[in-house]
Amino acid sequence: MTETAAPSKHSTDGFGVSSRIQAALPEMSAAMAKIGALLLENPAAPLELSITELAQQAGTSPATVTRFCRLIGYAGYPPLRVGAAADLGRSSAETWQSDIGRAFDPADSVVEVLNALVSSHTSALQTTAARLDREAAERAAAAIARSDHVDIYGIGGSAVLAAELQARLYRIGLNAHMWSEVHEGLTSAAIQGPGTVAIGISNTGRTGETLEMLSLARSTGALAVAITGNPDSPLASVADYHLTAFAADAYLQPDDLSAKHAQLLAIDLLYLLVAQQDFSRTTAKLAASAAAVAPHRRSLRGSGRTAAKGRTAS
To answer: Could you tell me which residue ranges the HTH rpiR-type domain spans (predicted)?
Structure first.
């Protein structure tokens, strides 16, 4: 049967993933039926597997998985994952613990929630500091400081961290660029070469776009650096140097900000080690940039006088 990206003719409003699959089975090609059978047997698969991994287990392609999602009424794989999570949540008495977090309870007070957050963030920073490969950080920083060009890759939440690192490196005189769109990132990665550095940031280390960009950059001759929470991840495996930014994944899954704080610690360390390599250049560039923006910063003393005059006049 010819595969189609068109939505199912059957109404799926209010249906769970399994019900949608059952309703659309007659319309499915053999490849799509394999995906359906896999999901009926293991409803949690979308939460545990990337689209590529799901396709591999079903013996098909990511494009076919996307068409399958549309056939059963979802716009793509991410909405399917949301639907699977909702189904599991409705069927589990442990919804809060499994979907929201284990570090605190919905009945906890503000103080208890705050203490849980402090504990989680502190643990992430301390564990990152203990596990981070210091020699790798030093060697990566030395390569970045003498590089002709630095590409930094990050998707989604990691893009914020990639932009932060790019801005810091650029401010101290390095030719650094940040890419969060895969086509643009691959274009830049393709023209990398010896004497350049590519940095990939991903908490899981499994983000396909980041992995693709970093792999291509390394294949063209760039030194590859990965910052992830998993030293055994695919992104770490393609890097010359890997920095572990560890988070315990204790609350608000999958938006645990302690993971980003661990990443921020790693990139802050990397930035400062780079800054040390040529300290005179660093201080000169920082002074020049500070002077450039100084006219745009209002004096607190002047603002106070203006406010006082305004009150007197009124």
So the answer is: 15-91
Compute φ and ψ for 299, nearest 5 degrees.
-75, 130
- Residue 103 in domain: no
Per-position DSSP letters for 200-259, written without gaps between them: EE-SSS--HHHHHHHHHHHHTTPEEEEEES-TTSHHHHT-SEEEE------BSTT--HHH
Q: Which amino acid is at 116?
A: A
Asked if the structure places residue 155 within a domain, the reply is: yes
pTM over 0.70: no
Q: What is the CATH number of the domain that holds 258?
A: 3.40.50.10490
Helix (H) or strand (E) holding 149: strand 149-154
pLDDT tens-digit map of 190-248? 999 999 999 999 988 999 999 999 999 999 999 999 999 888 899 999 999 999 988 66
User: How long, in residues, is the chain?
Assistant: 314
Note down the domain range covering 256: 113-276
